[in-house]
Amino acid sequence: MVTCHRRRTRWGWTIRKGQSEVWTTVKMAMVTPQALTRTVQDFLSEAAGAVVLENGSVAFDLAQSKYSISGEYNRCLLHLWSAERNSVRRVLEAEVKNGTLRLAVQRLGQARPSKLEICRERDRRSPTARRTARAAYEQKLRKTLERHLPDFKIVRLTSGVDLERSFGPVYARGLVRQGRTAFAFLGVNAQETQSSIDAALTFGILWLDVCRQAQAENVLVEGLKMFVPTGTSALVRERMANLNRDAAKWALYELDERHDALVEIDCADRGNVATRLVHSTDETAARQRFRESIVRVQEVLPNCEVAVLSAPEAVFRWRGLEFARARLGCITGSFRSVEEIVFGVGAEERILEIRNGDEFAELAQRLRDIRHPYGPRQHPLWRLRPERWLESLMVGDVSVVDQRLDSSCRYSQVPAFSASDRAMIDVLTATNAGRLAVVELKADEDIHLPLQGLDYWSRVEWHHARGEFPRFGYFEGRQLSSDKPLLFLVAPALHVHPATDTLLRYLSPEIEWEFVGIDERWREGVKVVFRKRPERSTRRGNEFPILAAS
Prior knowledge:
- It contains 13 helices and 29 strands.
- The protein is of the alpha+beta class.
- The strands form five sheets. The chain has an eight-stranded mixed sheet with strand order 17-23-24-25-26-27-28-29, with helices on both faces.
């Protein structure tokens, strides 16, 4: 008689017969491949910047990678690929926990399952590791300040959480004082993500404001000193160069934690902006090139938006959400190109063929049924890409933002390459008088809206000052004004972050900006409910320019 011992694992029942050490995994009755496919699709559709971990290391970054999911032949197959690698895994189980999709997968040709994790959070350190690194950085920053600012006394240094003022534990912040003069300071350590480093100036300005309000009247908080890791200051420097120098003294340093070296970065020179412009595409020629694909897609989803990204690529969107692309692909073993359509939401991508035509039609039907102003608000397809949805309405009539703007002369999603990122300007347009205007949109509350708008404005201003827009094919036939561009910041009136007014006070007076609050029901039609502009009189010290509303 053989005695059987068994234990349940995530992958099934593991059975041992007698005293043998040979274990056999028997799969449990699991959900259907179609249900697994839908679970993975729903998670990945809202995880555009996620990372895929295999054996504890990053295998794919979905910001630069693509994927496809197939539920055919009674199997759920996940295909991931990038410029560096390509992999196919059969999904056996899926579980979403703490923002991570945990998959039990099987390599093709192998019997034993393995683990695959897809994490929305790019910083994969444990909470303990983060706290340890941040505490060590606090001490490093303290020693650096004592050595390089010997005449100043550190009054305060903390990285504690203060949700009321929007401060988290990522940034070490404090105040140094000498007599009646003081400076606020804020630093970020080298183990934080680049996005956290780029966002540091937002919180630095807010910390400066907090310090100014907290100090006695006889203490003048003159400005802000920022400390970022070596080689990461490019975007912060560009933004700091366009702040109001009459409102505060701004200083930026790169701190090498390993070698204990500190280098001050010059932010005064605005002429050295690390940015480049992409040539405008001949949209008429591109639409003619992809006329067959456009007809084919619009037969399935009439009235969808068609946008030309480049000469060999056009995209199809439904209320701002991209669901298909037409592109020129290469024929294997040949130098000839062939027109093809790929479809999917987010980083998902499948070539449209006869065998999956029904899936494409099903996706189009789901978009029609869900993505409309009165659709199910909790559905992922309804919530996805709200800024793009708002943009699609704005591009139709950009004059709703300001009557001066010319709706017949606008570009959406203009590539804005910079030193540390590849961003997209929501809408680039011009007034009837030929003055350039940057329109930055946010559909949800975002503390970084003012400085993101500032970032895009500075790039447009840099290229405009060098006369590059006409040379690169933009605003053809239009005489552009030599004036600096206008900046419009647009957001729903009840989704404006409380810190926005504070941040706007510190923008350079050279920037003519306007904050436009729109009705919360903007999906039914964009309506402006208030406007806010800066008063041009500014004062130095602990007092700030006033914002004028209309």
